[in-house]
Amino acid sequence: MKSLLALGAVALTTAALAWAGAEAQPKAGGAPVPVITKAAKGEHCVEDTAYMRRNHMKLLLVHRDRTVLQGIRTPKHSLKGCIDCHASEATGSVASAKEDFCVSCHSYAAVKIDCFDCHSTKPQRTTAMNPSHPHAASVSANVEEMAGVSR
Ligand code: HEC
Ligand code: HEC
Ligand code: HEC
Q: Domain extents for the chain?
């Protein structure tokens, strides 16, 4: 009986610690503020940080249209690049845990994005597709599909 009680105490303590960890968030006057995970790679963002904070969505959408609709591929503002630098070291992803880069801020700002329904949230180990790649046919089919959606 004694050992059972001791076991219970241990379980409770562990639960309490886990809870404390989950709640370890800075508070500003009682309200939670977002904890933005530091970029794992790179000294600088693709543009000035303050500019990115306000304008990343525009950059991404312009870049998507240039790539998908006009077929212009430049790496500078690619979504793959964002994920390469901003994936968290803990989860390897930008959007699988609430602390992950894209989610941390969006849940605070109540922004919902559907980008990761299709795009991977983790850095891809494969090389970028080029037209002679065996999978290129299926990729361009997707591009046409997407171009259709956004028209
Ligand atoms: C229905 C599926 C789908 C959704 C949803 C979607 N995309 Fe895409 N996206 C694609 C496909 C397919 C391509 C073309 C394949 C490629 O170039 O990697 C693409 C290409 C892109 C590109 C250019 C390639 C790159 O890696 O930079 C960007 C930028 C992009 N999408 C951003 C977004 C953003 C931002 C959102 C959310 C607002 C989004 N996409 C939502 C399917 C989707
Ligand atoms: C070469 C690595 C690299 C790439 C590529 C990159 N970033 Fe960044 N980003 C950084 C660094 C470094 C910062 C500065 C803050 C930090 O250290 O986390 C930053 C800051 C930001 C911020 C502001 C965060 C804050 O603290 O307010 C946003 C938003 C952002 N990036 C979005 C993006 C998006 C979207 C893309 C893709 C279009 C992208 N980044 C591509 C490295 C990168
Ligand atoms: C510094 C906080 C912050 C970070 C980090 C951040 N976002 Fe955002 N994002 C916002 C805010 C705030 C908005 C809403 C802006 C508005 O409505 O004008 C937004 C909006 C967006 C939108 C447009 C959504 C819509 O429907 O209008 C996209 C797409 C987007 N973010 C992509 C990303 C991606 C991808 C990442 C991770 C690489 C990311 N964001 C990281 C703060 C952030």
A: 29-124+136-150
